[in-house]
Amino acid sequence: MDQLAGAVRRCGNPVVVGLDPRWEQLPAPLTNAMLGEPQERAGAYLAFCQQIIDVVAPLVPAVKPQAAFFEELGPVGMTALGTVIRYAQDQGLLVILDGKRNDIGSTAEAYARGWLGRRDSPWGADSLTVSPYLGEDSLTPFVNVATQRSAGLFVLVKTSNPGGGLLQDLVADELCVYRHVAELVDRLSAETVGECGYGIVGAVAGATYPEQLAELRQAMPHTWFLVPGFGSQGGGAADVAGGFDEQGLGAVVNSSRGIIFAHQREEYRGKYDDSQWQRAVEEATHDMIAQLQEGTPVGQLSRKLP
Amino acid sequence: MDQLAGAVRRCGNPVVVGLDPRWEQLPAPLTNAMLGEPQERAGAYLAFCQQIIDVVAPLVPAVKPQAAFFEELGPVGMTALGTVIRYAQDQGLLVILDGKRNDIGSTAEAYARGWLGRRDSPWGADSLTVSPYLGEDSLTPFVNVATQRSAGLFVLVKTSNPGGGLLQDLVADELCVYRHVAELVDRLSAETVGECGYGIVGAVAGATYPEQLAELRQAMPHTWFLVPGFGSQGGGAADVAGGFDEQGLGAVVNSSRGIIFAHQREEYRGKYDDSQWQRAVEEATHDMIAQLQEGTPVGQLSRKLP
């Protein structure tokens, strides 16, 4: 998380751009005359992600490729995913791989060894999202590998979807299930606290539940947050404000569709045609940065910059 | 689940062979003179899995490749995984892909579209394991795709690892968390019941918790079980007996290490040398089949065969 904190300070914002390529929504110039076969799609996804990275790399600290859209294409998609990860890092970005992986013991370790660490793993991501249903002994293998490789994790705690509450909001021993998970995650993170004050085990906590996000900020003092649900899922700057500490650190905020498919948003449609989709991406990124700098403690960061 | 029930009846047993290739444990003839680079490993994993499939295809209804060990190798591993899935199906086996995937909405759908369905998806698995932490709206996209493609799912309910209880055994509204998940899964499955009496949404329930397995059998009348934890994780025939219905259907039992690395087990070591590792696989499979036929309602099945 020291690397992430450094990148957030350097950029003066905590924006993570989610790379969720969806065939139906790609800008027309990238899919023209294509039939949509897996090999073609993989090529288009790669070009799309690289061209987004070209735009956002000077602006934001990290990108978050979504494994599902690449996996959907089979092995050719996975090859494209590997190329996207390396490309993003070559442009100076940190890469949070959104894979929501989990398993037990040595199987969890295999996932961790595969995904985590730039030099030591074939995929080379800087961090990985992990699901907690299997409990502590399913998380520790990820923590051990991440520790060895200066990588990070984000464990699902309170997710942004409406149905997440079914399980996460059940109350046991006077605490919601997500608070039990939060306790475990913060304990694991406390053992690996770096210079920035946060440990390597982060938490996913959605922008769509602002009260719970602020509650978790109090309950998880050692845990950096990855906050999805900004923009198209309905979360705004006021909703994510409670996720930050007083210095404007402690959280990164993800937007996927709102940025990468900005060319389809009402406010940019009239302004840019399909061939100018990258300019819509750039403007949407600047907009989100401005919203967070105005409406959250993130403003503290940019004021400190020269 | 009708396909699975049919295969179980045909074979007279519910054994699933877990394909968990681990580099350190591969039989020496498959790794001789190799350095362990990803490309080499992927080739060795493929050969290993194919040679296991050659042995077990005439004996058991299904195999369960573990995605993690292939993912660990990067894109070359994923390509090998695709080949393993197709090879197993060509030999007449059903393929349960153990990926423990999950996400929300259209992202979950991308995973489902990628993995599920022989004809319609690039990976082509017959079913997929899924994690439930994100709730009902994360499961329904998988259910919808599986329904359209005559494929199946196995949702994690009560896992076999010691730490699973941390979250799964929390008591909320007088029921353990895993029972809440069980209720959801059985409700989803009830909507898709086939001729065999079970729906397409199965549940993972470990052999290491025999009482809970029997309790779940009662609580989930529409749900087929995938039972891990047999053999090297400590579960025996008596432990899994409660997972079956009176006809000997309603559950398949997975063994990974106990079968695929049988050449390293005390009882087979003296009998077969490393070059005869496939004979150890064959004998271990027969042993497991016999244990289940003697110690569980599965005996009912074989007595019905000609």
UniProtKB/TrEMBL annotation, chains A, B:
The reaction(s) this protein catalyses: orotidine 5'-phosphate + H(+) = UMP + CO2
Sample GO molecular function, one term: orotidine-5'-phosphate decarboxylase activity
Domain of life of the native organism: Bacteria
Enzyme class: lyase
Chain ranges passing through the membrane: none
Pfam families to which the protein is assigned, alphabetical: OMPdecase (PF00215)
Family per similarity comment: Belongs to the OMP decarboxylase family. Type 2 subfamily.
SUPFAM superfamilies: Ribulose-phoshate binding barrel
Pathway listed: Pyrimidine metabolism; UMP biosynthesis via de novo pathway; UMP from orotate: step 2/2
Record key words, sorted: Decarboxylase, Lyase, Pyrimidine biosynthesis
Cross-referenced Gene3D superfamilies: Aldolase class I
CDD domains documented for this protein: OMP_decarboxylase_like
EC number of the protein: 4.1.1.23
NCBIfam families associated with the record: pyrF_sub2
Active site: 100 (proton donor)
Organism listed in the record: Adhaeretor mobilis
GO terms (BP aspect): 'de novo' pyrimidine nucleobase biosynthetic process; 'de novo' UMP biosynthetic process
Residues covered by the Orotidine 5'-phosphate decarboxylase domain: 14-272
PROSITE patterns the record matches: OMPDECASE
Protein name: Orotidine 5'-phosphate decarboxylase
